[in-house]
Amino acid sequence: MTLKPLKQSFSICQVRDYSQVNWDSPYIFLSRTDQENSLVCPCQDVPDNAIEVDNGWSAFRIEGVLDFSLIGILSKLSAILADSQIGIFAVSTYNTDYILTKTVDFGKAMQVLEGEGYKVEQ
Fold first, then answer.
1. Which of 16, 32, 77, 82 is deepest in the core (most CB within 10 A)?
2. How many helices (H) and strands (E) does the chain have?
3. CB within 8 A of 30, min separation 6: which ones?
4. In sequence order, what are the beta bridge partners of 95?
5. What are the residues whose beta carbons fall under 8 Å from the beta carbon of 74, sequence distance 6 or more?
6. SS3 label, residue 16
């Protein structure tokens, strides 16, 4: 399985609403519940109406389209990183999964996963 590091630095935010989201950004992840509106976006695209912001995240995606019948991919990756004391924030799309770690841990995360047999695309 191939992992592709993304070049952007990300922020994880809680926002009042999505009216100020930069829809031209190459990466936007939204989550809305009855309790909050969340946004993951490149640091430079944090909207002014953010309530809480946690900067300093890096991300990688699992390359290819993951079939819904595949089980345990995210679980295995998160367990490997947890065993190395690396926290994650995971986001899924229809096609694949994205995993964010704090930027200070990202290099170690890539090394650990490579050591476990994952191919890290450069």
1. 77
2. 2, 8
3. 18, 21, 37, 38, 39
4. none
5. 90, 92, 97, 99
6. coil
What three-state secondary structure class fits 64?
coil
Candidates 28, 3, 16; CA nearest to 81 is 3
Q: Residues with Cβ < 8 Å from 110, sequence gap 6 or more?
A: 3, 5, 60, 120
* Phi, psi dihedrals of residue 101, rounded to the nearest 5°: -130, 160
Query: Which residue is it, tokens 């990756």?
Result: 77
Please state whether the predicted TM-score (pTM) of the whole model is above 0.70: yes
Q: Report pLDDT digits (tens) over 30-88.
A: 999 999 999 999 999 999 999 999 999 999 998 865 555 555 678 899 999 999 999 99
Nearest to 11 by CA among 51, 39, 32: 39
Interval 10-27 mean pLDDT: 97
Q: What is the mean pLDDT of the chain?
A: 92
Maximum alpha-carbon separation in the chain: 43
Bridge partner residues of 13 (DSSP):
39, 53
